[in-house]
Amino acid sequence: MRAIKVKPEVAGIYPLSFLQQALLFHSLQQEEDQGFLQVRCFLNGTIDLDLFKTSWKQTINRHESLRTSIHWKNIEKPVQVVHRQADFPFTFSDLEKLPASEQEDKLEEIVRSDKIQELDLSESPAWRIKLVKLSNDRHFLLWSCHHILADGWSASIILRDLLAFYDAAKNDRTIGLSEIPDHAAYLEWRKTQDDSLAKSYWMNALAGFTAPTFVGSGSDKNQENEFAVERFEFSKNESDQLREYAKKNQITLNTLIQGVWSMVLSRFVGKNDIAFGTVVSGRSIDLPNAEKMAGMFMNVLPFRARLNKNDIASTWLKTLQIQQSKITQFEFVNLDRILSWNNASRNTALFDNLVVFENIPLEYTKSGGILIEKFESGLTSNYVVTLAVRPLKEISFFVKYNKARVSETKAEWFVSSIEQAIRNLLEHDSWPIRRIVDSISSPNFGEVGNDSILKEKSVLEKYTPPGNDVELKLTEIWETLLNHRPISITDNFFELGGTSIDAIRLFTEIENIFKKKIQPITLLKNDTIEALSELITDETAEALSTLVPLRASGSKPPIFCFHAGGGHVFFYRSLAERLGSDQPVYALQRPGMDDFEFASLEIEELAERYLSEMTRVQPKGPYALVGYCFSTVVCYEIALKLEEMGERVALLAMVDSPPSPIYFRPRTVGQKLKRFAKMIRNNDWSFATDIVKRRLIVPTRRKVQNMLATEEIRHRAKIRITANTAVEKYNWRRYSGHVDLIVTEDRVETGAVEFMLDEWQRLAQGGVNLSVLPGNHPTIFSDPEVENLAKCIQKGLDDI
């Protein structure tokens, strides 16, 4: 980092925390800054304006965060600068003479106009105060600040200290506030912590958690990352019942909410082992008076809930409370570190949803003759879904969601499901978890249809695969962070649903893998894999031309699938989706699909090209290969070459295809007579129409098609003929291993399976394992047939 000279008016310069970096990035990236907070409340009681201003200045002197600015330009890493002094940006308005209805309109206008005024984080103070007089004993306070310098606990701490200073000044007393640690003391404390204990705890807490809990779908590129909020409130009677239930079962209201959200998530994802983010204060530490520090100390930690559905819900909730108390012992570790400990090779996200329990209400706090009423601190989150709970007399619930990732219908389902789960919990105290989860309505949203199919087709048409090793590795990282695939190197990070936290984690991974330090804000101008790769790569980076990562992420050995006759590979995508989130799937497409030069390559040379790119992804075996249609021959040749290299081919699966796709062995006269006799016995006279179709209709249709064909169609036909010529020249050799032959029922009915089985048995010295699946050759990779194909291939992968 470039040295920063500390000026006399500067008290200290410190690095940003993980969450602060994410908030800075989001502030610079989004048009609407989700970190901007408008803390507001009503102050009941007469206010001496001069004493009020003096009290604010004393509060500024007490808390460093009110004298801090953020800097990121022209330095290697962003920092926060604590100033010894700071101004007091204060505005006073008097609306006392206006009628109550006009006062309400004016307050809304003040809040609205204030929201569009930007805060300059690089200037101190990075906040402002507006005080509006409504009557002699009632005022409205609006404190605009940024989450990067003040978490929810800070608002409570600062306003309590403000009233304490005001009370002391008003009553001419010496204030007795205890000394609080500064940021330097906090960082020194952090250095003394044994991370090995934290690592042990978090690795144990998340051991075996393999399926992330995601509630958002793939981002709609036509929909900006705009957030909406669904709100509902329990009556005072219902709220009292909730508190009574928590008290009776010796759990906190926070634990009760976490349990309810766990059950709703379980119903939504259909799993009993789920995770979500939970917010902690970051102040439950053995540093004297840490709980009185204002600033950005809160943290987001993973909360894992395992639901044994036969457990009584009230008993299970007590185990969640014990779990929550253990988490607070290690709440100082950031999420990025926890993920790296548990997924060292993949850094996989665990969740995309968050629970915020606002256990910091200032409602009805009184000091110096001033009573705080209707306190609101705002909701800052860019998670896909955030459940926020405000435990006032009437408990309020807020479901904030990203409209690009969650439909309004889905958000409404979450709202109704929370209400449903809570009411069943209160009414049926002895119910097991299973009864409560099953009582929640099924999450069927009917969002799949022709529009989504057309959208999918559009995505695939615009897909550009990685062009070198750096782009390939970046693709793997993006897939893991964004839970989206396939990702084109021209796709925009933010349009895919990337958040500020994802961005910070992305550059942590870039530094770990490529050993290059790049500021996260670089992503604002380099928001594609292609652009990022240019910042990372050098001129010696070796190009890729055939490898297409359908899923680059995953810890298992990859499976390689080879193209069909046209050279394309995207028909494998449905198969890749069904092979599990931890299974990397790569496809090999023919280089220069419309180029005669590549189509005329000998099979051996084509196999060499494919193998060179495969071994860059997987240098050593065991290897898993899938061939289909035209590619069976090149897939087979690669298996032979791997065998010659001393590598093990654990799976060589040929899907519904003979060794050579050009022809099938003609039926003998005996076979034809046997088939006709069977059809006549079954009163099936389709053979007659088959003869007419084969001898008359098909040849005539081909002649007409050739006459009407476009230049492009004729060109592709010539490419196909050229490629088939290369297959005819191929020298078939015997393979010492076995072949897994997967055929469709249609092949059995036509008798083609006998030919395929004979040919593969002639080549595979290790024998042929035959599997017959429903469907036919053109539909085997489409729904619903692909489901059975995936299970069949998965069985082969499991045996590796």
- Give the averaged pLDDT, no decimals: 85
CATH class of the largest domain: Alpha Beta
CATH architecture of the largest domain: 3-Layer(aba) Sandwich
Strand content: 15-25%
Distance between the termini: 48 Å
Number of domains: 5
Count of β-strands: 22
Largest sheet properties: 7 strands, mixed
Helix content: 40-55%
Task: Please characterize this protein's 3D structure.
- The protein is 42% helix and 17% strand.
- The chain is of the alpha/beta class and 800 residues long.
- It folds into 5 domains: 10-177, Chloramphenicol Acetyltransferase (2-Layer Sandwich); 226-364 and 374-439, Chloramphenicol Acetyltransferase; 465-544, Orthogonal Bundle (Non-ribosomal Peptide Synthetase Peptidyl Carrier Protein, Chain A), CATH 1.10.1200.10; 545-676 and 713-800, Alpha/Beta hydrolase fold, catalytic domain (Rossmann fold), CATH 3.40.50.1820; 677-712.
- The strands form 4 sheets. The protein has a 7-stranded mixed beta sheet with strand order 16-18-17-19-20-21-22, with helices on both faces.
- Strand 12 (366-367) and strand 13 (370-376) form a beta hairpin.
- Helix 19 crosses helix 20 (632-644).
- 39% of the residues are buried.
- Residues 1-6 and 447-459 have low confidence and may be disordered.
Give a quick rundown of the structure.
By secondary structure, the chain is an alpha/beta fold.
